[in-house]
Structure to design on (465 residues):
């Protein structure tokens, strides 16, 4: 199935997504990688809120290249999501609903997604120029000292994504491979 | 004897850093296109076609093919009859600094592995120099992303593990890497030498064009067998299932100790980038 989703998305919209579905995502998406996740969790430890509203939010695991004059962003493909696994359940508990990245997630993250009704969408790894084409605006939110890892607020339009793990825990990285082996390699 | 000015080396490295990041080598583009034609699984075929679109968009918009513009692996073949005016290593690092700045490339290097402060200019380069005969200098820049680098592995096998042991270790490493290194991958394999030389061979193997089999028929056959076995794993482009898990397996081997069989697997992504120039 193919869906158009706008952030913030309703619980019902996210619940109907299934691993393997295509999604064109529009709206506000925040960028955060390892270093920013570590700092967000430090905020939690100190009893402070995250530097942006996590409730209903979408986070894209990306560290873009610097923008040319006249462009809002450089190349912007996803980074390996597994490096955020240690932090992701705390963000999901705080209301994060959509994670965007590439590659496998841990059982802890998947269980937390099921508990919190969240989804994990895959962008095309290594296709930084293609992914950048759907980003219309980018502005710095905080932690400029982190360079490419600083938190940015992106406005995206029809960002082409695939549901990698749905809110029931179905995992395309397992299912897609199994189905291919069953039907083609036999 | 030939003199080469260090400023020329700096200019060349700067240019190669930019050139390497904005496009893919023709052999890699051809391999992606051929894989798309041969791919029997629809979803996988679609992703391979999008990878082709990505290369075209990068070229049209002067954008890096991938946002991970990597650590700059710089390989220099240095003729022993060359004299360099000025500081060679400084020239290479100045070239990387300028290339990553002027080319709007991402600065992805931290000054210490544990204290982790970004150097801000993507230096230092990972520099490897090999002396050759003659009075030429050949410089190759391979920007290496870490999504794939992180999935690489090394094992000190026993001589008794032999041919089968090597095959199993390569397959095990690719299987474990799964979707993380942005498949379809290019697999560099180093066999023999010592702990460090095996790793060097695996990285150096990634410099070979993917359409050139190993000149030694024995290893060419092993490359071909491993390629078939990897592409029967079903991981597929992006790990969503499909035939095209790898675009190539590239092996380099060298003599080793009677007691050892070191094997290193250096995984590279579909955006395997390199650019060369001769001075």
């Amino acid at each position: 199935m193919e869906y158009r989703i706008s952030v913030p998305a309703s619980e019902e919209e996210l619940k109907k997504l299934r691993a393997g579905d295509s999604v064109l995502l529009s709206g506000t998406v925040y960028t955060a990688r390892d270093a920013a996740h570590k700092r967000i969790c430090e905020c939690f430890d100190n009893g402070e809120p995250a530097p942006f509203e996590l409730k209903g939010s979408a986070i894209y695991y990306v560290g873009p290249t610097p923008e040319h004059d006249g462009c809002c962003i450089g190349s912007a493909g996803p980074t390996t999501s597994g490096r955020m696994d240690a932090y992701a359940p705390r963000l999901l508990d705080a209301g994060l609903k959509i994670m965007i990245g590439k590659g496998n997630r841990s059982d802890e993250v998947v269980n937390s997604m099921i508990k919190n009704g969240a989804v994990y969408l895959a962008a095309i790894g290594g296709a930084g120029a293609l992914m950048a084409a759907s980003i219309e605006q980018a502005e710095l939110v905080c932690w400029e000292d982190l360079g490419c890892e600083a938190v940015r607020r992106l406005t995206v339009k029809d960002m082409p994504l695939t549901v990698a793990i749905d809110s029931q825990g179905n995992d395309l990285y397992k299912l897609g491979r199994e189905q291919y082996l069953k039907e083609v390699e036999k | 004897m030939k003199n080469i000015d260090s400023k020329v080396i700096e200019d060349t490295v700067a240019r190669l850093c930019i050139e390497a990041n904005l496009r893919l080598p023709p052999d890699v583009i051809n391999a992606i296109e051929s894989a798309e034609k041969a791919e029997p699984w629809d979803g996988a075929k679609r992703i391979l076609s999008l990878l082709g679109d990505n290369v075209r968009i990068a070229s049209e918009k002067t954008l890096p093919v991938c946002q991970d513009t990597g650590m700059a692996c710089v390989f220099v073949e240095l003729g022993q009859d060359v004299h360099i005016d000025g500081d060679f290593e400084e020239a290479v690092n100045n070239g990387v600094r300028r290339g990553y700045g002027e080319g709007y490339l991402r600065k992805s290097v931290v000054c210490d592995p544990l204290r982790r402060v970004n150097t801000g200019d993507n230096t230092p380069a990972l520099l490897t120099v090999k002396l050759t005969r003659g009075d030429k200098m050949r410089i190759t820049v391979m920007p290496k992303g870490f999504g794939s680098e992180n999935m690489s592995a090394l094992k000190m096998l026993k001589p008794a593990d032999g041919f089968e042991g090597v095959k199993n270790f390569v397959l095990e490493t690719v299987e474990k890497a799964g979707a993380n290194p942005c498949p379809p991958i290019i697999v560099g394999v180093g066999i023999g030498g010592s702990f460090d030389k095996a790793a060097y061979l695996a990285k150096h193997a990634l410099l070979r064009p993917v359409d050139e089999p190993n000149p030694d028929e024995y290893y060419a056959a092993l490359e071909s067998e491993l390629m078939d076995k990897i592409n029967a794993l079903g991981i597929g482009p992006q790990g969503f299932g499909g035939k095209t898990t790898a675009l190539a397996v590239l092996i380099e081997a060298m003599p080793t100790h009677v007691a050892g069989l070191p094997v290193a697997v250096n995984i590279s992504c579909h955006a395997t980038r390199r650019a060369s120039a001769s001075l």
